[in-house]
Amino acid sequence: MSTIEANVAGFAVDPTEAPPLSLGQMTWRRFLRHKMAVAGAIMIILLFLYSFGGSFLYTEDFANATDTANRLQPPSAEHLFGTDQIGRDILARTIYGGQISLIIGSAAVLLQTLVGVIIGAIAGYYGGLIDSLLMRFTEAMFNIPQLFLLIVMAKTFAGKIANVQLFGRTFSGSVVIIIVIIGLTSWMYLARIVRAEFLSLKENEFVLAAKATGTSNLQIIFRHILPNSAAPIIVSATLGIANAILSESYISFLGLGVEPPTATWGNMLDRAAGNFNLISTAPWYWITPGMFIVLTVLSINFVGDGLRDALDPRSRSV
């Protein structure tokens, strides 16, 4: 409708008035107002560029190459982050270790989100006996200590799963075990969140209208209700990456995580902690991987906080 037509119709239209913001634009503006979340997002991008872009500068063979003549060298122009106990370059090790840590966090959260969304959606949509059975199963899973299970499973399957060749890299078989265990023991909180969302949305008019038109239950779940539950799922998945990276670091620090030849930030810390003298004599050995873990976890948590505020439907600030 033109300005003249609108005025004739009785509407006062200001031609200079900006068009209303879309939901995506409002979400983006709210996110940008959260300065720590923006800083966290920038840091995550830099960490991914460092971990995956760094492989174009250093090969994995170089990261695993030993040179005992240069063992425990402090940071220098030749080795920016110094060297470890057997002369390996810590800069190259943190690049390839970061790849594994980030892959474990992302893959575990993908599995966790898949299981949590399916169980929560089915329980919340169908209700009744199905809801009761699935929620009792969820409560039972809460009683399984994740860290203890990780340690037991890593110890049980250590060395029993063959290394995996992927994208020209050799991955320890323990990587798969850690991803599966973290993913299958971390979905319960998300399942409860999704169930609550489905319970509140399934009686809304748009769902009742879809049922009246003969839409199948699967279409209602995945095309109508699930997209409207995306906000808490995205926030939970974001924060889950940080938890997965920390879980991997815990067991790797205990020497039961990802095994050589695959490096992670966690097992680099384990190598440094194996000799307490190195804590004071070679601080670069443990500070560097520890710094990357702290930066990654803090950045992801900041982004999660920002997404939670930006996706909050009750928020009116833009």
Question: Can you give a write-up of this model?
Answer:
- The chain is mainly alpha-helical.
- The chain has a single domain (36-56, 82-310), classed as Orthogonal Bundle (MetI-like fold).
- Helix content is 67%, strand content 2%.
- It has 15 helices and two strands.
- It has helices spanning 3-8, 23-33, 35-53, 60-64, 90-126, 128-142, 146-157, 174-184, 188-201, 205-212, 217-225, 230-253, 265-273, 277-281, 284-310; strands at 164-166, 169-171.
- The chain has a two-stranded antiparallel sheet with strand order 1-2.
- Helix 7 (146-157) packs antiparallel against helix 8 and helix 10 (205-212) runs antiparallel to helix 11.
- The longest helix has 37 residues, at 90-126.
- Spatially, the strands of the biggest sheet line up as 1-2
Q: What percentage of the residues does DSSP assign to strands (E)?
A: under 5%
The average pLDDT value, as a whole number, equals 81
CATH class, named Mainly Alpha
Low-confidence stretches: 1-6
What is the number of E strands?
A: 2
* Helical amount: 55-70%
CATH topology: MetI-like fold
Radius of gyration: 25 Å
CATH architecture grouping: Orthogonal Bundle
Basic shape = globular
Q: What structural class do you assign from the helix and strand content?
A: mainly alpha
Determine the number of helices (DSSP H or I, runs of at least 4 residues).
15
Number of domains: 1
Question: How far apart are the termini?
Answer: 27 Å
CATH superfamily, please? MetI-like
In N-to-C order, the SSE pattern is HHHHHHHEEHHHHHHHH
Largest sheet: 2 strands, antiparallel
